[in-house]
Amino acid sequence: MIAELALRFLVIGALAFGGGQAALPLVERLAVGDTGWLTSSQFAVGVGLAYATPGPVLILAAYVGYLVAGIAGAVVATAAVFAVPITLAASAAAVVERLEGSERFRRFGAGAAAGAVGLLGVTLLVLARPVGVVSPLLLVGSSVVFLASRRFSPVVILLVAVVAGGAVAGITAAR
Amino acid sequence: MLGLQVAVVGLLASALFRLSGDLPLGSLRLLALVAFGVGLLSVNAALVVIAAGLAWLVAGDR
Fold first, then answer.
1. ipTM of the modeled complex
2. DSSP B18-31
């Protein structure tokens, strides 16, 4: 299990063209679709925590690793997901410089990033579906968040959304 | 939990909007749309990303 976790997050780290958000679909497919390690709801919570904590969004690997194999899983997944980018950036600066100057590498990265953006749409659908079943407030709520995300920090949005969601759940339970 | 899920959907929609807007060419957006369609078919996500990169690379070499 730990070896599979490490291998899969190594691949994700190596393919994270376009930044952490663009790699979210890869993590979702790995953790929810392919292996069933997490439910969609657990993944959504993990993404929320990744947005709310400082540092890159791919720290989500620690959350996934922890749920799969405890502390060891968290450490292995986190190390694996950042291993390739750190190795490339830190120990092979010359290679990176050469690759960045390579038109072919730039073109591959542009295409891979476009592919990741398309997959992000799939992830969005997967995450929206269970929310839509639970509440018709999805469209209104997510639209408000969408608009608010241009002005407010994701941390503030998440806190407000959690409080609002708790209030809605409390009102519903009281009826 | 519901609030958190709604927030994540909204934030991801925002990220998708921004990232797709950052794609410099219309044909790259078309490639993203194709990847979206292929992704719906539950094809391995890593393969989709690699295939998109290679497709763009080959298209550039032509």
1. 0.87
2. HHHHH--SHHHHHH
